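User: Fold this, then the next.

Assistant: Folding the first:
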Amino acid sequence: MMVPARLPVAPRPFRDELLSSWVVRVAARYGAEPLEVMIYLAGQGGRDAGARQVDDVAPDMELLRLWAKACRIDPERLHRRSLPSRYPAQPRDWFLTETVPTCIACFDADVAAGRDAYLRGHWRLAEQVVCQSHRTMLLDRCSACLGRLRPSFRMLNGLLRPFCRRCDAVLTGGGGEVEDPLKVDFAAEVLELQRQISRIVRGDSARLDRLDYAIRTLWAPLDRDGAARPVLALWFEQPGWNCPFEARAAVGSSAPLQHLSVRWRALTLVILHDIFGPDLVPGAVLPEAALVLFRRAAPMLWLAHSRDARNRKGKRAIDVGADRVHRLSKRRFHRLNRNFLDERGDFGRIHP
């Protein structure tokens, strides 16, 4: 029987580090990608483990045991770095599943502290769009090449530093976002909305259910066939606005925030505040602005049924107050706008 491999150098995970980030840091110490190290460890008795990757949301304990043995760490300590263990009250739909936005100022703080740069766990929470430590917007686009940001980590002056995987630009030394007063003010306002949303997501299940309902409806397709526009398009002042390509995957999705970039997630929070006020969620009676938006949503069966077991006992509170909206939305022509052949027939920006 083969003896499991032991890696001679294995950095310890930081307290707020993503599990996948720690795996990347371990592999980077050997100038390799995590998959290469995983295949090596699997070859020491891990069966087909080399074909899989460590997942932050649903980690495979077999893989964690391989890494734990190789790095001489308690596997339970690694498991506690997974997102469900770190945020047990966070629903799965509120974890980002694609790219991880980053805060450049946090990377600069790593440089100043003389430690490896790493990815923070809370960056993968869907409601997180502003860094709470530095009050700057998180970035998911490289400032150098403007492409989708996918950091890679390499040794630089004895420590790991983040680089853009696409253009190879170093992601430290810039001080984060440019100190534009408008950006600073916007980030401060969104930060407060972000905190409110976090309390709702990990708090009262009834309010979370209504919040999910509102977000899915805002990102539902319009009732006009072929419009390629979500319902929240009516919130804008441009009647002919079409949904950008980067946000189209969210239209009609049961978990829109998972498919949205930072700026679109931030805008969603702003629209929720604009329509529903400080509570950010609809109540039993919808405001007039919400009625106008919600009645323009194309009929969607999943809006009438809860996806969570906590709501299976009865009809959701938001459904009780919005039955009339559903009846109107199922009409071929809306009573306030009968000409869907012309984009100018759509409403402009709507406020409460």
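Now the next one, as you asked:
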Amino acid sequence: MLDTTLDSLAQFFRSFRRTTPFPVEILLPGLLILFAWPLLRIWLDDARTTFMVAFVLGMGLRLAMKSRVMIARTRAQVSAPVTVALIMLAGPGALGLLIWSAEPLLCQRFLSLYFLFAAALYAIDVVDGSYAINRFRWPQPSMRGTDAAMTRVMVIYNLAMVLANETLIQQASQTTWLLYFGLLPLVSNMIRTALVRTVQEGYGAGA
């Protein structure tokens, strides 16, 4: 049991060395926040307002970059009117609510709620055994056979991201959290890629 666990961890860390270059779009939210924060801090001279403006810029850019993929995936499952309603609610609706609240802590906790919601969806998939999210997210034939393992891994991953975010909220400054938020697409992409490769090598078709 211990040998199997250690071997899986070794495969996981080796996966980072095989990670392919990421599109520059993944880095853009982090770069925007990195360069905008000091300028906004000088211009606005108020930490709360600076945080909100930097957060909205990073969040808005991330939603804009993901909008086409989100619309295509949602449209494949539901009708056009429902797609419009869901996208507006999850995108501009959520962002508008955060802007209206003007509360930095709510913006930080929103990220925890996002990962907690994702963990709950994967947990439901584990309970009912459908693994629908995993099959939708990774439809490749090589991923068949990994559904049960990958779904459980994603529950753990999302709960770990909740813990990481809550720890940063309690221990780090708002500046550090903003940089984490900006770089999160890159970090999460790297971790998920390594997790997929590790599970695929252990449970995928032909493993």
